[in-house]
Write a structure and sequence with these properties.
Blueprint: H1 9-14, H2 30-33, H3 36-46, E1 50-54, H4 63-74, E2 77-81, H5 93-98, E3 103-107, E4 120-123, H6 131-141, E5 149-153, H7 161-168, E6 175-177, E7 179-180, H8 192-198, H9 204-208, E8 215-219, E9 222-226, E10 236-240, H10 245-253, E11 258-263, E12 268-271, H11 276-292, E13 295-300, H12 308-321, E14 325-329, H13 336-340, E15 347-351, E16 368-369, H14 371-378, E17 414-416, E18 423-425, E19 439-441, E20 447-449, H15 454-460, E21 484-485, E22 488-489
Parallel strand pairs: 1-2, 1-3, 3-4, 5-6, 5-10, 10-11, 13-14, 13-15, 15-16
Antiparallel strand pairs: 7-9, 8-9, 11-12, 17-18, 19-20, 21-22
Helix pairs in contact: 3-4, 6-7, 11-14, 12-14
Length: about 500
């Protein structure tokens, strides 16, 4: 009979892993797709000796060939980074530092989040786009030549956006073209593709960008310029790329704009019908769940995006001022069993890049919210306006969306829960610092009980893990342990060793 949660060990050992086919076409060389000459030139120019190549899962099939070519032409030691600690769109600086790499070459899809330690070269492995068919699809979707439209693209299709824009700008007078905002380190990592995007002067938008009165918007790794007398809400957005986290992130960030998309792989176009208002109301429900929470788990969903530690410390502060307790977790990629180990946590806050921060937590035992949603729940000075922020760096002091928290928040502030319908008090209470678990009467209206912290929850468990017994264990000389593998140690019968052997 098959076992539900485990299988025979021999099946695991003998299992063959399938390898997905590469995304490149049969006539496209590895050198062209992965821009090996540019990578080699970059490594030689800066004299790197240890190079880490980061591939997403779909491109790992070509990783060995690319690494061998890089080693041969650069003379540097090349390491392949697969199975990143978090999302493959983020630069995995942690894995690169394990091998003391001097730099990272990041291939494929990228969220374009700035890094903080190692120099990075981005290779988007750009895919072809049928420019003529895309232009015709644009005309079909948006026949009004006076319509205000912003053209955006996925990074893997960014090489064709200028060609498409130059064709359409001859007919559409209010066309705006976005360019990728490549995170730059102290080194010169600008590629020919990036130069062509930044030096584009074929559209009226670029000419308008020279006017100091125009407004420049730079969000989600993309920059575009609007006329001073126009509002972003009056523009539609034409997105070139497949349905992805990038598109969802853009739609949530620019939720007042109409979206159109063109999929170069399927050669189809459509008006996006995602009900953004419904999605926003669902996220607002998560805000209400965060308001109800008493114990908050702050989960580090990235260790490479700059300022992530600053955001975590900021979250700790606002959670404390809101009268809640917080704990910090670092656990790599999230899944249901990992978070289920911490049942004392009422809500988790995921600190990740803008494309990975929005996750569907319906299968999780506890809600998973974003830093923006947690701040909405704790900071009474921030009001819900329909604006949605997925980039946590926009919440930091000095950022345009930063809202300082009032020093007196919560002392006399009460709120009505939209979930339970009961009264609740927001803010740090002096009695919480005493460690008392007795019921404390606040006034004639509200009576609240001290909430169990994670420590008290641990005390209530029947099993709390191994006891350390520090200072109670005798110090002994180390002995040689078992040799071999768990399926058959050398001292076990039938493994070629003695029946009795040294113990670990």
């Amino acid at each position: 009979m098959a076992v539900a949660f485990s299988t025979d060990s021999s099946e695991v050992i003998n299992r063959s892993l399938g390898i997905s086919s590469p995304s490149r076409t049969s006539h496209e060389s590895v050198e062209a797709l992965y821009e090996i000459p540019r990578c080699v030139q970059w490594v030689k120019k800066h004299g790197f000796h240890k190079v880490a190549l980061q591939f997403p899962d779909a491109l790992l099939v070509d990783s060995t060939e690319v690494a061998l070519k890089m080693e041969k032409e650069t003379g540097a030691k090349v390491y392949i980074l697969g199975d990143t600690s978090y999302g493959s769109c983020c630069v995995d600086e942690v894995a690169a530092q394990h091998v003391n790499a001097d730099c990272i070459v990041h291939y494929g899809q990228s969220c374009l989040s700035p890094t903080s330690h190692l120099p990075v070269l981005y290779v988007f492995c750009c895919q072809p786009v049928d420019v003529e068919h895309c232009v015709q699809s644009f005309r079909k979707l948006i026949p009004d030549q006076h319509a205000r439209v912003i053209i955006m693209s996925d990074v893997t299709y960014s090489a064709s956006i200028n060609d498409i824009s130059s064709r359409l700008s001859q007919e559409y007078a209010c066309l705006v073209t976005s360019s990728l905002n490549i995170p730059h380190s102290n080194l010169d990592t600008e590629s020919s593709t990036q130069k062509s995007e930044q030096d584009t002067d074929s559209t009226s938008t670029t000419q308008d960008s020279l006017d100091q009165d125009n407004q420049v918007i730079c969000r989600f790794g993309r920059t575009f310029c609007l006329q001073a007398d126009t509002e972003l809400d009056s523009y539609s957005i034409f997105y070139i790329g497949k349905e992805s986290l990038t598109l969802t992130n853009l739609m949530m960030g620019y939720n007042r704009c109409m979206f159109y998309s063109y999929n170069p792989d399927g050669r189809n176009c459509r008006k996006e019908t995602l009900n953004v208002n419904k999605a926003l109301m669902k996220r607002y429900y998560m805000v209400e769940k965060a308001k109800e929470a008493n114990v908050v788990g702050i989960v580090a969903g990235t260790l490479g995006v700059s300022d992530y530690l600053t955001v975590i410390n900021n979250l700790k502060e606002i959670v404390k001022k809101a009268g809640k307790k917080s704990y910090t977790f670092v656990m790599g990629k999230l899944n249901v069993p990992k978070l289920a180990n911490f049942m004392e946590i009422d809500v988790f806050v995921l600190v990740a890049c803008s494309e990975n921060t929005l996750i569907d937590s319906s299968e999780f035992y506890r809600p998973v919210v974003t830093p923006f949603e947690m701040e909405l729940a704790c900071n009474s000075c921030r009001e819900w306006t329909g604006e949605y922020i997925t980039d946590f760096r926009e919440l930091l002091p000095g950022a345009p969306s930063h809202v300082p928290m009032s020093e007196g928040t919560g002392e006399d502030e009460t709120d009505v829960s939209l979930i339970s319908g009961g009264m609740r008090r927001v803010g740090l209470r002096e009695e919480q610092t005493t460690g008392s678990t007795a019921v404390v009467k606040r006034d004639d209206v509200l009576t609240v009980a001290e909430v169990n912290s994670g420590a008290s929850f641990l005390q209530s468990l029947s099993w709390q893990g191994l006891e350390q017994k520090l200072g109670e264990t005798d110090v002994t000389t180390a002995v040689e342990g078992r040799t071999g593998i768990a399926a058959g140690y050398t001292h076990e019968p039938g493994a070629g060793g003695d029946k009795e052997g040294p113990q670990a």
